Amino acid sequence: MSNQLSSFLQKISESFNQQQLVKITLGNKRDKSADLKNVFIKPVRIKNTEKLSFTYRNPTQDIFKNYDLKESLILIEKMLQTDFYNADLFTAVNDLHLAIDKNDITKIITKPATLSITATTQQHDKQKVRVVNSTTAVYLHQLGITTAEGQVKKDMQDKFKQINRYVEIIEGIIKDIQFEKNITVADMGSGKGYLTFALYDYLINTLKKDATIVGIEMRDDLVNKCNQIAKNIHYSNLKFEKGTIQDAEVPAINMLIALHACDTATDDAIFKGIQANAEVIICAPCCHKQIRKQMAPENELKSITRHGILLERQAEIVTDSIRALILEAHGYKTKVFEFIATEHTPKNVLIVATKTNKTETAKQESLEKVAGLKKLFNIKTHYLETLL
Ligand SMILES: C[S@@+](CC[C@H](N)C(=O)[O-])C[C@H]1O[C@@H](n2cnc3c(N)ncnc32)[C@H](O)[C@@H]1O
Hints:
The chain is α/β, with parallel strands linked by helices. It has 13 helices and 14 strands. The protein has a 7-stranded antiparallel sheet with strand order 4-3-2-1-5-6-7. It has a 7-stranded mixed sheet with strand order 10-9-8-11-12-14-13, with helices on both faces. A hairpin with an 8-residue loop joins strand 1 (21-29) and strand 2 (38-46). The termini are far apart. The structure holds S-adenosylmethionine.
């Protein structure tokens, strides 16, 4: 081992023992065709023991391992001899850049510190409570949610929270469902794909299931961008297609998702899900204009609907209640609950419908409840009824 490499490893050891180590990055791979692109190393406390957490960045997946200092130094030395030409050590005191050239001549450049301990330590604590690991989920970086080191960008904190909440909800919904081997999903109005990628990653990389997801989106630019990202990170069964929810031809699928599709586009999506006999339909409705225009109660409810803001809120409640009842009339069990707290997004209601065995009488009762609500608010038609 060269003196320079030995002194670099010594610095890692010292900074670790003095709790001044912020992070280490290994890069500039020796074999350009090798899959392993970078290794990111950070101190981590596990069961009251200080360790080093290694993130091995590969094209499709990050691998995450923890080692004690001794093991870490052996691994770093080996990787700098066989896998990488460069290493950066960031400490609270200074930054050290190690460069090895093709003749194995090693240099160290020392610069003033650019990172502080607290920022990284806090980040680690936050990551521990999230279901989505920001350093291992490669799609997050591709979608611009995290930095190359896996830190969630400041302006993406809410989006990251929403992704985590979504994955937690999905986890709860599908844990009791026996899907066939390949889970098929249509995501209507997939937009920038944040939640579509999150679902795919969860099914494939966390649950280790076979899954095929198609995102339907009317904007060309978003479709192209999402397809490119899926290709870059080898999410081979995740595709995005340009089209409208209304015209989409949805084959028999296991899950239909429609998150924040505007106004009646949510109804179009629910309709496609019922038609496709989806076992699970999940939608987060967004703007409820269709019913609001019709609501003109001729009873005590008038005292509520005469106020614009209350009319708007009432329209949301009635629209989504009728959606849930119509889903029940088609054999689904439904739950309506908060998606994510309103301080993060105003569009925060989720309707989750799962296929169940309902008697014809129960279905009929749901339809009667729809009729009752419509009568109460003097509503002529709910758009979803017209589709069905
Ligand atoms: C508010 S974004 C939501 C994106 C994503 N589902 C999410 O929740 O993060 C709604 C997306 O649905 C798309 N969209 C709206 N109506 C649509 C329709 N009828 N057919 C296809 N896409 C639609 C919009 O272009 C937009 O990208």
